[in-house]
Structures are given as C-alpha cells and as structure tokens.
Amino acid sequence: MFQSLNNPKEAPRSILALDFGGTKLAAAIVHFGEREWRSHKRMLSPADADAKADLANMRSLIHDLLQGEKPAAIGISFGGPVDAKLGKVRLSHHVPGWGNIPLREILEAEFQVPVSVDNDANVAALGEHRFGAGIGYESLFYITVSTGVGGGWILNGHPWRGAGGMAGEIGHVVVDPNGPICLCGKRGCVERLASGPYMAAAAREELHKQPLRGEILRSLANNNEDAITGQLISQAATQGDELALEILQRAGWALGVGIGNAANLINPQLFVLGGGVTKAGAQFWEVVRRVARETALPEVNFDIVPAALGDEAPLWGAVALAQEELN
Amino acid sequence: MFQSLNNPKEAPRSILALDFGGTKLAAAIVHFGEREWRSHKRMLSPADADAKADLANMRSLIHDLLQGEKPAAIGISFGGPVDAKLGKVRLSHHVPGWGNIPLREILEAEFQVPVSVDNDANVAALGEHRFGAGIGYESLFYITVSTGVGGGWILNGHPWRGAGGMAGEIGHVVVDPNGPICLCGKRGCVERLASGPYMAAAAREELHKQPLRGEILRSLANNNEDAITGQLISQAATQGDELALEILQRAGWALGVGIGNAANLINPQLFVLGGGVTKAGAQFWEVVRRVARETALPEVNFDIVPAALGDEAPLWGAVALAQEELN
Q: Chain A partners of B163 at a C-beta cutoff of 8 Å?
C-alpha cells in the first residue's frame, strides 16, 4: 500500500517507534535488524496537555529525529484502550481529548507510511516476545503491575487481542469475591489488591488502624501518609517492616491467583511480569510464584520471569508491532 | 502420508468418528460434507473394562460399520487427558490401563489412514464450532458441566490447546479462595461448586444441617440421600425447592465468575455451555449470565449459549478433528 522513498542501497530501512505514555512522550528510530537506537528523544507531557498538545509535541520529537528522512513504517504504543484493528485510540485515562482519535489515519496521511498502533500492554508483550524475556517462546502472557494492572497475550507467536480487542484484562479478574470494592465496581479484582495506588491506600488505612505498627514505613514516608507509594511499601518491606510486608504479600497473593487461573485457562509457556510493583524484591516474587504454582493444576507448567526491557518495552514493542505489520 | 484406497469416483470419501466416553463407546461414519451419519453404532463399556477391552470392543464396532471399506481419516474423542500432538492418551479417570497409550499409532498401523485424537472437551469445542452453536464464530470457549467441569478453546477458528495441551481447565479456576476444598487440593474451584456430584454432596450436607428444608428434594429422592444427583437438584429447584435452588444458584454463580474472568482474560466472542448441569433450566442460566456479565468489564462483550450437539458432540467433534487434520 505504501512505498518507501528510501533507496535501500543508499540508506538502511528504518522503523520509527512512538510511545504516548500518558505522562511522557518518546520517539526513537532503529534500523532493520538492529538492537540499538539510531536516535532517541523523550519529553514529559505538560500537566495540562490534551490530545492536540500531545500530538503537536510528538510531531516535533519526530521531526527532530527524522530530519526529513522517511521511515519504512511507524509503530505506536498508546497508554490507554486502543482499537488496534481500526488504528483508533478509544480513550486516555490520563490525557483529555483522546476519545475516538484515528491515530493511524492521522499519521499515515502525514507520513505516507504504514502505521500500527496498540495499547501499551499488548505492545510491551510483543516487545518482550521479540526482544526481551520472551524470545524463543511461542506463547506468553505479559503482565504490567504499576498504577494499574494490565496484560497482553502472545499465542502462536502473535498477539492475541480478543474479539473486541479487550483480551488481557487480568487486572479485573476477580480473585476474592469478598474482598474490597474496586473502582470497576466489583470486589477483590487483582488490580484492587496489587496495584501501587491501591497498595498505598491499604497501607494508609492499616497505619490508622494499627498505630503501633509500620514504624519503618512511617519513617520512610517522614510521617506524611500522602508520601506513601507502592515503591515505598516495597522498600519498607525489604527493610523488615511487617505491616508493609503483609500488604505486599497480599498483592503477591492476588497476582499469583490471577496467574494460576490464567495458566489453567490458557496454559501459556511463560508469564513475563513488568511494572514498578514487580521490582518489589524477592519476598514479593516468592509469594507470586508459590501462589501461582498452588493455583494451577500440577500438570500445568509455566515459568514466571521479570520483564527484560524495562521502560523501553513500549518503544521496542512498537518496533515489533511495525515489523509484524510489514511481514 | 497416507493414501486412500477409495476411488473417489466410485465411493464418496468418508470419515470415521470414534468416541471413547469412559462408560460408553460409539463409532459413526459420515460422508464428506454431509450432516447425517451414514451409519452409527454404540455400546456401553462393561463395568470391568480396561483399555484392552475398550480397544477390542471399539474394533468390533468399527468393523461392523466399515464392512471392509476404508475411510479417508479417523477422528477420536477420548474422555480423559490426551497429548493431541503425539496422539497419545495420557490417562483415563474411569477405565484402567489407558496410561500412556499411543492410540493414534495403534490405529494408524491398523487402518493405514491418518488418525487424530484429542480429549472430549477440546473435541466437543471443535464440534460445536463446525457443526453446532458456534458456527460462524472465530473465537469461543466451550464448557462442559457434568460429572466434572472442563473446557476447550477455539481461537482464530482453530483449537487452542495450550503449550502442554492443558488449556481449558476452567473447572480448576479458583473463584472463592475461602470456599470448600476441591479434590485437587485447592479451595473454591469452579468444579467444586458447580459439578453434579459436588452439588449432590452439598445438598446432602445441607439436608442434614437443615432438617426442615428441602422437602421437594427429599421427596423426589424418596428420602434416600444416595439418590440425590445434580439432575434431581435441578428438578427440585424447578418445582420450587428453595434449598435446591440455593445450591443451583451457587453453582451458577461459580460458573458465572469463571466465565466472566475468562472473558476478561481472553475476550472470546462466545461461550458455549454443554453437559447435564446446564440443562438445569432458566433459573440456573439467569444466574450464570448475570454473574458472568457482572464479572466481566463493561467493554468486554460475549454471548453465552447452550451447546447444540448434545450427546453427539464428541462424534461430530471427532469428524471436525479429522477434517482439521486433512486440510
């Protein structure tokens, strides 16, 4: 459908990867088959940014990078629900104005090259599969545990997005029907128990209820409970704070049940865990692995490993997404 | 690999479908593209049957059917864990001697045609997809709820069996971590709450605890608690027995949570429900549908429909399995 202006003898073909991350924007170029960025730019999204401002800022990153050169394709990771088939952003939970924006159409009209776009969890799954912890696996489930909990499937070596593009919502798998109420209205979702902000909320609640516990956590937060984050809870747990450890173990338990249930249903080879909460250290990982193992049937085998690409998962995933489209 | 001895001009090509059902054996022949059996045989497995006896009995059914003619392929549904890739039966929970039996190899050597074998849930999923309630859908999850609870996936129009052939184990998805202990050792599995025998056990327990309730159920069972089955509970519930209805609704709730969680994870178009318990009537279906809808995110769409092939699902699925292999 699109023809590259590059003469392959003169310039190697390249892919432009974009990351609309909600609070930050990033763009990078890579040559076909290479694993180092040729060049790379990122910026924070201003707090008052809307979709228009994000697009204008991304355009200037792109033009800085490309310097008039034309990539073979553009891949995009978007931090929010996307209709990957239509190339449309459905919504951003962070930035206003993104409702129903035909991002693929806009950029294809502008750059005259094929553009692919998907949500950050699906893109990161593809990135880990092609370039990270999932190299060589045919089936995996990537799970990101940070502000929210989301996931993306690779089945038969390709993304599985579901009939309506909604597959991978492990964050809203119910693991405790008598648990606390989640923003989605249900009780005991994985996200309600394992996401950073909900862990912080649980910590604040327990600190109120149990004034004699959580000494290390209180001191790390300088006795300012608004300073408590998922990261601080991990840190306190590592330093021996038992209350923090309990909250972390509950998060690990919820994630472990979700993973074990997903293993029973789909039996993938591998689970890849990324996102801030999964950096919580050995005690967290031990619980996740043990509970997932206990929840899955003995005949259902899998490994659970940390993501390898870190903050660059969306960009490398965007490269993989563009390649998937070109193949 | 195999050449048919049939001359396609003289005799239409046919498929031989076999069902090793645990307590019964069935075999049938169908012509390519037809939806009526050319001929069909079934028998009960004797109570003392082992794998050898099952095989000998099946052989005599087959020879009765074929009368020396040679089918183009053989498809097999087996009531127990199967390694579909290797064509090996892993085990039967009902009939001794089936551990690690290379069923494909045995029948290919004997009949000199391609043989495919898979477990009954996967085969029934394929049958419903090609010939039943799932015609025209690209993705579905078939769930059977009877003595056990199992399932089989169709994704992208083909069976998804998982990395180790263990996908579809919705029976052992945990829906209530504080629930009763299942045979598998975990608490609150779907099977523990929704299978016929476990429902009957729950009914017996409640009848002991609550001597003034369950009048209709007691009378249907002629006050013989050993006569209580899942089917009798359904019948009692339909006739207004509140205790029976509570147990049925709990089963529906467990199945609904399992379905809603599966929808959030995989987002298939359709769930197809078969097996004796799903014949429990409108009250059961209402709970399953409502709870599944509440458990899935609002953006995750799906239908839940009854299986269409009934007892013939394994045989029609075996036809579809053989065709899948021939294509």
A: 138-139, 267-269, 301-302
